[in-house]
């Protein structure tokens, strides 16, 4: 369900209602007849994360951003169960139906926007609406678990590798402690986000980041972790995805994600590109030009017909192909 939209010629805002009645704040930029790019932000961000990327894409594409449930101007369900992966995928599909009815789109996710978008990439009814998927510093929990299991069976997962990712993911454990994480956000992180950002990224956040809703976004977004992390890591639900092109963008100086979490992805999707940048986790706000370039490459390639078309793959892409019957 879509409410009445309003806005200027360059940006149109609208309210999209998801399958469970939650309202999502959606903004459209550019010409709706151009290829549609849907940008999904992570935690503890809102759609403002994409400002610099939108600036670089809106003249050539129909660029769509939205605040995920529990963030920004979207509704904030109180129950943890309302943040399940399947519901997050329903949210995305509601947005796609509203902004590009009957069409395929190019999906891009960063951080938790990437993590939750893998669910849509793996889900047949949503994947059918996707021409490409670009995941930036946002691994699939299910495929990460499947890959770790494969490494263990081959005797290739050293204890130090597990320890390294656990150290990077210390905050996830804290999010499962009752009361502790919300109190931390309310009385420290929300007020001192610039300092926290500088510790992990090496620089202070640029103007406009974070959004004014950072404290509320940090508190409400904890439900994403509590509802999804352990169930998906302990009981992964898929082993491959079938979107024609998946582009995985690895930030080599990421304080939260070890690059080897992506090692087992080749062979689990028809066409995979690895792109790498000597950058920290929040590359969309620190280097939006690189991110916009990655997106342009994927859109150009797919709009020209993919592997059988006229647009070449970028020279710096590490490419992998898999037989359609591969199950891993």
Describe this structure in words.
- With about 325 residues, the chain is α/β, with parallel strands linked by helices.
- It has one domain: Alpha/Beta hydrolase fold, catalytic domain (Rossmann fold), CATH 3.40.50.1820.
- About 40% of the residues lie in helices and about 15% in strands.
- The protein has helices at about 50-55, 85-100, 110-120, 125, 140-155, 160-170, 170-175, 180-190, 195-200, 215-235, 285, 290-305; strands spanning about 5, 10-15, 25-30, 35-40, 60-65, 105-110, 130-135, 245-250, 270-275, 320.
- Strands 1-2-3-5-4-6-7-8-9-10 form a 10-stranded mixed β-sheet, with helices on both faces.
- A hairpin with a 3-residue loop joins strand 1 (about 5) and strand 2.
- Helix 1 (about 50-55) packs across helix 12 and helix 8 (about 180-190) runs antiparallel to helix 10.
- Residues about 5-10 have low confidence and may be disordered.
Write a compact overview of the structure shown.
With 328 residues, the chain is an alpha/beta fold. Helices cover 38% and strands 17% of the residues. The protein is globular.
Salient structural properties:
328 residues, alpha/beta, Rossmann fold
* Distance separating the two termini: 38 Å
| CATH architectural type | 3-Layer(aba) Sandwich
Rg result: 19 Å
> How much of the residues is beta strand, in percent?
15-25%
Give the spatial strand order of the biggest sheet.
1-2-3-5-4-6-7-8-9-10
Query: If helices are DSSP runs of H or I spanning 4 or more residues, what is the number of helices?
Result: 12
What's the layout of helices and strands?
Layout: E1 6-7, E2 11-17, E3 23-29, E4 36-40, H1 51-57, E5 62-66, H2 85-99, E6 105-110, H3 112-122, H4 124-127, E7 130-136, H5 141-153, H6 159-168, H7 170-175, H8 180-189, H9 193-201, H10 214-234, E8 245-251, E9 271-277, H11 283-286, H12 288-303, E10 318-321
Parallel strand pairs: 4-5, 4-6, 6-7, 7-8, 8-9
Antiparallel strand pairs: 1-2, 2-3, 3-5, 9-10
Helix pairs in contact: 1-12, 2-3, 5-10, 8-10
């Amino acid at each position: 369900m879509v409410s009445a939209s309003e806005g200027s010629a360059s940006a149109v805002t609208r309210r999209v209602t998801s399958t469970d009645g939650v309202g999502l704040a959606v903004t459209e930029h550019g010409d709706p007849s151009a290829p549609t790019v849907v940008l999904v932000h992570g935690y503890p961000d809102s759609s403002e994360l994409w400002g610099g990327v939108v600036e670089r894409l809106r003249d050539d594409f129909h660029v769509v951003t939205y605040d995920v449930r529990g963030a920004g101007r979207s509704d904030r369900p109180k129950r943890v169960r309302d943040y399940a992966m399947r519901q997050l995928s329903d949210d995305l599909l509601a947005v796609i139906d509203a902004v590009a009815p009957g069409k395929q789109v190019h999906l891009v996710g960063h951080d938790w926007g990437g993590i939750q978008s893998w669910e849509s990439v793996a889900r047949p009814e949503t994947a059918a609406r996707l021409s490409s998927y670009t995941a930036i510093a946002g691994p699939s929990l299910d495929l990460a678990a499947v890959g770790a299991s494969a490494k263990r069976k081959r005797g290739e997962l050293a204890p130090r590798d597990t320890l390294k990712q656990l150290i990077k993911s210390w905050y996830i454990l804290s999010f499962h402690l009752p009361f502790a994480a919300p109190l931390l956000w309310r009385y420290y992180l929300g007020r001192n986000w610039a300092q926290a950002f500088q510790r992990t990224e090496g620089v202070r956040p640029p103007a406009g980041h974070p959004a004014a809703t950072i404290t509320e976004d940090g508190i409400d977004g904890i439900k994403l972790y509590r509802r999804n992390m352990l169930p998906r890591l302990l009981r992964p639900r898929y082993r491959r995805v079938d979107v024609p092109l998946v582009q995985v963008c690895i930030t080599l100086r990421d304080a939260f994600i070890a690059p080897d979490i992506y090692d087992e992805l080749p062979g689990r999707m028809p066409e995979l590109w690895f792109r790498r940048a000597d950058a920290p986790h929040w590359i969309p706000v620190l280097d939006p030009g690189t991110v916009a370039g990655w997106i342009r490459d994927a859109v150009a390639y797919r709009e020209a017909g993919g592997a059988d078309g006229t647009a070449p793959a970028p020279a710096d892409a590490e490419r992998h192909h898999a037989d359609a019957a591969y199950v891993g």
